[in-house]
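Dear Dr. H.,

I hope your travels went smoothly. While you were away I took the liberty of generating a structure for the chain from your last submission, since the lab meeting agenda had it listed for discussion. I wanted you to have the full record in hand beforehand rather than looking at slides cold. The sequence, exactly as received, is reproduced here:
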Amino acid sequence: MDKLQVQGDESVLLRVTHSNIKSFASDVRFSLQMTVEAVKDKLWKKCGTSVESMCLELYDDTGAKVSDLADNTRPLGFYSPQDGFRLHVIDLDPSSVTSGGWLEDTSLVEKYKISDEAYNKLDGTYKKFKERMGVQHSNLESKISDNYMEDLCANIKVGDRCQVEVGEKRGIVKFVGQAETLAPGFWVGIQYDEPLGKHDGMVKGKRYFECPPLCGGMVRPDKVQRGLGDNVVKAEWRSMAVRPKNATAYRLGTSRNEILSKKMKSKLRKTIKSIESAQLLFCGDNERVVA
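The corresponding predicted structure, in token form, is as follows:
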């Protein structure tokens, strides 16, 4: 037996298949020093076939049968398996959990059914939850007046540049007014500068404005910051890769290159101070070396 033991911790990668589960196929690594019984125990945890009901067959990479692993006491290395060989599991138990094909075909599994009348009598169901939420939503909408947030729309005009609070998305106002396909009250339609929206201006089959796909959004007026002032325009300009072509940005007075130049000069001054501090070397009591 000692001659059959494989020296070292060598292992082999085998393709495992199953007689009852046609869709089952798994690459499993085994130590060549494992006994056949230990191999079966490892496979039982993967495919469900008990060790007592399991029979193993070894096939090479061409599909030819190499051997039956009949002796549970022998090490796996005795049968000379190689990487890529197939280890086929045969389940001999007719009442095994793997028999019948129900693990692969769910139509063979008996399912619990309940009548609509019995289901409607149950509490805590998803249907009851939807009905309860629907009532709450309708009650909330009924409490919102038709002129809700109308006063906030007084200074919002179509064509205004704006910024939406949630996410700080920027764009152009394309619609102001009531939306019949949305909740009561006033809404503002935005065409975002980037495709950060949900539609192209059409909401639930009703078109309120035109814009590219995924660039449109409908928000409440309190979420809109209109009339981007100098601070916002300046922030927009500094985030651009090139100088803007509009006159408003030019009037800000400082070009992007000048801003970068000032930042570079400030960093350079800090660097020089750090170097000078590092060059204060003590050479005696009152001496120091200055570059």
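Two observations you may find useful: Residues 215 and 265 are 41 Å apart (CA to CA). The chain has six helices and twelve strands.

With kind regards,
E. W.
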